[in-house]
């Protein structure tokens, strides 16, 4: 965010999270989503006790890193089968893996923060629920598995 004089230096306000875009790589260009969640990373803990340690406790060391699946929700559009086409490419341990880039934008549309999901592929698609008495927009949910999450501040 900009300060009173328009510069970004000394900005003390946190970024709003409602303006973002998702680039699905070669599957589709920029796609508008309603919600993106699950950008989690966790490192497992390995507990080890050295045999000659004077302390009666274990040492904790970092182990394997795990990345959560990222869930994306977006509206259903007429004649748009982008997700289903990508999902249908899963065949016996083969899938078209993509680099997915999630960009947080400022008021001017400039990228302020970027999350990159490496070797991403769709693991689950949940179709919208249908209700005859509802007045909500039809929303599909796409769950993406990936092998690495890289974060860059612009």
Describe this structure in words.
Strands 1, 2, 3, 6, 7, 8, 9 and 10 form an 8-stranded antiparallel beta sheet that branches. The chain has one domain: Pnp Oxidase, Chain A (Roll), CATH 2.30.110.20. The chain is built from 1 helix and 10 strands, in the order ββββββαββββ. The protein is extended, with a radius of gyration of 21 Å. The chain is mainly β and 154 residues long. Strand 7 and strand 8 form a beta hairpin.
Low-pLDDT parts are: none
Number of strands: 10
Q: Please identify, by name, the CATH architecture.
A: Roll
The end-to-end span amounts to: 13 Å
Instruction: Please work out how many helical segments DSSP would assign.
Output: 1
Content-based structural category? mainly beta
| SSE pattern | EEEEEEHEEEE
In CATH, the homologous superfamily goes by the name: Hcp1-like
What are the SSEs and their pairings?
Layout: E1 20-23, E2 30-31, E3 35-37, E4 41-48, E5 59-67, E6 70-75, H1 82-87, E7 98-105, E8 111-126, E9 139-145, E10 148-153
Antiparallel strand pairs: 1-2, 1-7, 3-6, 4-5, 6-9, 7-8, 8-9, 8-10
């Amino acid at each position: 965010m900009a300060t009173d004089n328009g510069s970004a230096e000394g900005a003390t306000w946190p970024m709003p999270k409602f303006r973002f875009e998702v680039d699905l790589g070669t599957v589709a260009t920029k796609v508008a989503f309603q919600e993106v969640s699950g950008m989690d990373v966790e490192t497992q803990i390995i507990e080890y006790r050295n045999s000659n340690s004077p302390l009666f406790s274990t040492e904790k060391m970092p182990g394997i890193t795990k990345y959560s699946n990222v869930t994306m929700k977006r509206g259903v559009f007429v004649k748009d089968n982008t997700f289903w086409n990508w999902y249908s490419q899963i065949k016996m341990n083969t899938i078209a893996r993509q680099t997915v880039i999630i960009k947080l934008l400022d008021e001017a549309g400039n990228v302020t923060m970027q999350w990159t999901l490496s070797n991403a592929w769709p693991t689950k698609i949940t179709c919208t629920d249908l209700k005859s008495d509802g007045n909500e927009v039809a929303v599909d949910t796409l769950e993406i598995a990936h092998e690495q999450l890289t974060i860059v501040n612009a």
